[in-house]
Amino acid sequence: MNKAKILVADDIKQNVKLLRVILTASEFDVIEAYDGEEALEKAKSENPDLILLDIMMPKLTGYEVCQQLRANGTTKSIPIVMITALHEMDDRIKGIEAGADDFISKPFNKTELLARVKALLRMRRIPAKEEETNVLESILSELEEGVVVTDGQWKITHINQTAKELLNIHETDTENLDLMQYLSRMNLSLSTDTLTNIREKTTDFQILPSTIQRPFPSSARMTKIFDDGGNITGITLVLRKT
User: Which of 30, 59, 132, 190 could link 205 by a cystine bridge, Cβ 3.0 to 4.6 Å?
Assistant: First the structure.
């Protein structure tokens, strides 16, 4: 069986060397890139089975590389793991929006890194739609924050357990449920009409205590994704108990 080929992109040579040692010891072939432009070129020319992509690189950031790879027909399905020292939820949301499949933080754990790499390589054998769903659900389930992802019509496509608890959603099958239906039942610092019609990309608001079943407040950040024509194509809601 041919070895899986992994592209490692990081501007710090010591990091690349360490990843090469770990990956080659596990029978992977490794391709190296030291800036965003080189990573993009080698992804197109070498067609790797998976990419380990640092976020903060010269010439092109990891986000920009990821976006361009997802827009290219020959590279759009390559699994991408972003390696970063950043821990903010907004950075991970930005990575998801750019098309990342998974994340691992520096300094990384060797066992965790290999487990994530092998899992994504297995996932690549699953039909694309199911693969994307499984990987995203895995990411969301690990987050402490509540996260809801909808389409442009507020229909839920992905939601983690924390978000269900914070929004009092009890249905087991949440696909295509209307998120606004649940928000409209709550005591919000902004009206649902405002949330629906606002054209800002990011909006912060509060979900206030209202009943015995909901004695605690939550902070919420809504991010809307627009296409080139200004139409909303997706919405992400991140919730934190305060």
Answer: 190
